[in-house]
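I am still getting used to backbone structure tokens and would like to learn alongside you. Please make up or recall a protein chain and show it to me in full. Would you write everything just below, so we can both look at the same thing?
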Amino acid sequence: MSSDDGKTAGKDPQSPTEEELKQVMENNTGASDVPTDFSLERLRSSFEGCIGEDGKILLKNYIVGFDELYKFLNLLGTVFGWVSTDVDNKIEVLRQHRRGEHANEYENIEDMIAFEVKNNLIKPKAKDSTTGARNLLRLHRALEYIVAFLKGVPALDVDEKCCPLSQDAYKKTLMKHHPWVIQKAATLAMHMLPLKRGLLEKVCGKDFGSEEYKVAEEILPVGVKVMEEVYQKINEIYVQYDLLNLP
């Protein structure tokens, strides 16, 4: 996710100390309360259901979809601890808005942002904010990376490493929003990613060659396609309100 410290790591950016790397990589992905019941089909159907009949993005479905992405990130272990915890925190902020006194304004993303803009709730230079727009933007940026990464997985050979694909996707998307220390830690952590075979085995919970594995191979590109469609529609909303570059 985007760090509100922006581009300042605060130190000479030659190399992070071991302690800095350790701190960046610390996470709770091994905690017993982390959900493990990831479903690729539920991920696909949630994002597919995001776009309502009126063309607006339903926040409820988006949150359910990101719940599944959170589970997916945790499936990969500590390698994505640097983003999964932040994703969970941002999802919770959106849930709170949907339970709050203005819940009716948080049914879909278009109305949410229009409401927050109209009421001057979005402070361009705020370092920490509980607005739906700013927290959704963090998820939006993470989604861009996840889509770019997973979009390339089907083309990999079964025993090809996922690391270079993930690093390339990160450098083209999320990296620019992170301070240097996190950039370094994230790209190093990606060396822990499995081969394509291992990734899909984690996704489906079954071994290579199983029926479940074959189904996962079929659903993955479909799921990525609907996530990309949702990403593009949300991006248009942020461009419309000139909010895409909030710190």
